[in-house]
Write a structure and sequence with these properties.
- The chain has nine helices and nine strands.
- It is of the alpha/beta class.
- It folds into two domains: 108 residues, no CATH class; 161 residues, 3-Layer(aba) Sandwich (Rossmann fold), CATH 3.40.50.
- Helix 7 crosses helix 8.
Length: 289
Amino acid sequence: MIWIAGLRRSVFKGPLAPLCVGVIDEVHDYAGVGISWRELIQAPFAGHFNILICTEAKIRNALLLKRLSHDTFISPAANFRLSDRRLERGKGYPESIFDQLRCLAELSVGRRLDIDAHVSVGAENERLAAELLPQEGAYIGFAPGSAGASKRWPLARFIQLAKQVGSLGSRPVFFLGPEESSMQSDIAAGVPNALFPEQNLVGGPLLSIALARRLSVGVANDAGGGHILAAGGRPLVSLFGHTSEHKFKPPYGTRVAISSREYGGTNISLIPVDRVFQEIRILGGFQRG
C-alpha cells in the first residue's frame, strides 16, 4: 500500500509511523498531487497503481488524481460519478471518516470487510505499561490537548474533574503529547496525585495505546490524543465543540460523545464538569452515591 499526502506532511511519516509497519509500504508527503490544474498537463507523481483511491470528496482533487496511471479509480466525488465503482442503489455515503475509509476500501475489493480494530503494541510496550500502571482498571485517563485551541475543553475543567475521580477510588493519568508538555506543571500543582507515565520516555503511540488499555475510562477532546486512548479499547468520553461528534467517531470500544450543542452553542467550554463526571461513573461501572 502506498499513502500519498499531496499538500502536507503525513502523520504516517511522523508520530504515527510505528502504527504503519506492515500495513503501509510507502508514505509520500508534500507530493504535490491533487493541488493544481497544471497537473492535467503533467502528472507530478510517477508510477502505476492497480487501485487508486481518492479519499477526499472534492471534484478538483478527484479529477487531478485520476490523471495518475491506474487500473481502477475509486472516489466519492460528485456522488461517485467519477468513480469506476459506485455504491449500491439506496446506500448513502457514511458520515464518519472511519466508515468512509472502510466504504472506499470495500468498493476497491468488491466485498464486505470485517475490520479488526485491535492494535498490536508489542510485548515490550505491554510489559512497560504494566510496570508504569500496575493496577489495571484503577486509573482514569485524560487527554487534554488538541492542535486547535477551539477544540480544547478548558484545562481547569480537566483539573477539576481529575480531583473528583479520587472519590471513585481511581487515580488520574494524563496523556500529554509534545505540544502539551507545558500543561504538566499546572496539572501537577492542581492534582498532586496525577500520573504522567509517558513523560521522559520515548515510547511513541504504541506505548500510549498499551497504557490506555490499563484504564477504566478515558476522557479526551476531539483530537489525536483521544483516538490514541480510544485505540486502547477502553470506554471513552469524547468532548466536542464546533466539530461533529459523528464525523470523528473512533471505531474502537464503547464511546460516549458529549457535544456543546446539547448546551446551546458550539463553544466546548459550555460542557459542564458534572456531566462528564456522570458519564465516567456510568462507563466505568462505579457505584452511584
